[in-house]
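Could someone model phenylalanine with this protein?
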Amino acid sequence: MKRRDFLVRVAAAGGSTYAAMKALDLLGEPSPAAAQSGPFRLPRAGGGKRVIILGAGIAGMTAAYELNKAGYKCFLLEARSRSGGRCWTVRTGDQIEETTGTVQTAQFAQGEYFNPGPARIPQHHVTIDYCRELGVPLQVFANLNYEQYYYNEGVPGALAGKKVRAREAKADMRGYIAELLAKAVSRDALEQPLSENDKARLVEFLRTYGGLNADLFYTGSARRGYIAERQGAGDRPGKFESPYSLSALINLGFAGYESFEQGYDQQMMMFQPIGGMDQIARALDKKVPGIRYGAEVNEIRKTTSGVRVVYTQNGGQQEIKGDYCICTIPLSVLRKIPADFSPEMQTAIAGVDYAVTGKSALQFNRRFWEEDENIMGGITSTNIGLGTIWYPSYGYLSKRGVVVGYYNFGAQAEEFGALAPEARVQRALEIGSRIHPQYNSHFETGMSLHWPNIPYNLGGWATYTTQTRQQYYARLNQPDGNIYLCGEHLSYLTGWMAGAFESARVVTQQINALG
Ligand code: PHE
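Reply:
Sure, complex below.
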């Protein structure tokens, strides 16, 4: 029996082709060590097989890029007039259209830009490897800056409506935790028996770690920053305020903020392409010539030996046939396209939710966050409807800057999304000026978007629950006939470009393994 026949039988019997391939060592996956030592390569030659790829976002272009290297013939259909999908940068003159019919045209100054989608890359993601391979220059993106604020209103305690520097909150919380533990240890209040020597060493560690005084009390420290006159020369030793109270910090929601910041993917120092996230898409699309733009998919059909896709381009209907189809269309859009998917596949495609999320960009003619508040990049977190406010990690010390006025999810995003784009900007300014009153005198121009309203996306990214991951994910990862789904939604890195890159590798390996 040929490899392909075997795999087709496994699939027909309801088994996992992917698992079977793995068992047969057909994926040709490089060893982890090898994966790090050079670009990804498909092991077998494609022999001119025709692959129709739906969507020229990161997943589709990467699949084409990898398959082209191995000698396949790829045909990329893209509904938009540009490549990149969510990997997108808006500059002056660019437009944001929503399904409600609104169109905004960016009025930013030359050199300013806005990344409506992906805007930060962790150091361990495969995205960085593709930037290296494609020659996309990167710069640091300050994701966690100790100068940024936590700003919550309506919380109990002294910190309601106060701009709390992350630095202050972190120094104080660490101090209190160290103090509590140091006292417990020195008073033998812990269950664990500790030798006198261990106790002394642990207490000394905690004293240093938390910035405690000789009596093991946390009374504040210069770690939380100086107030008023900063530390300097002559008669300026610097003064720091007494700490916030432990209960006020708990009430502020410190644990929630800090646990997000500690996420493996949410690193303190992240990266962004210089000049806008779309530099990644541009570098990729140079490698995959012949993308058919303005090509909207109408039907996805199985044929006896392959696939057939019907699409509209320039007002006329066209058809293309191939051996395989790699479909990167988001499930939120795919579920509305007539297709020959099996009933289980159709149910799985319909069953996965998409993130409700939105963003705004506000251009100011003065970098007051830098000039007045010493915030050089970073992200303020708040509970007043905005989610987060992002300060730019480029153009430091220059005249203007584009701030992300809100980036939020769920109910907060719904509230903004229900408004007209201009009204969202107004609301971002009104609410945001409670944190930065300078908004009122320095605003120049802004725009906003609501991802559920963006044509060809209809949502932010796939959001699996434990249940939908269990029910649908395995099915979505198996080909349906010769149709392979691909994209961030076919990964455990949903909401990241890395998910799209990784999925493109998986799917091209699956096809390549069939010989
Ligand atoms: N990658 C996106 C971000 O960093 C979306 C995301 C958020 C994905 C949180 C996972 C977790 O904002």
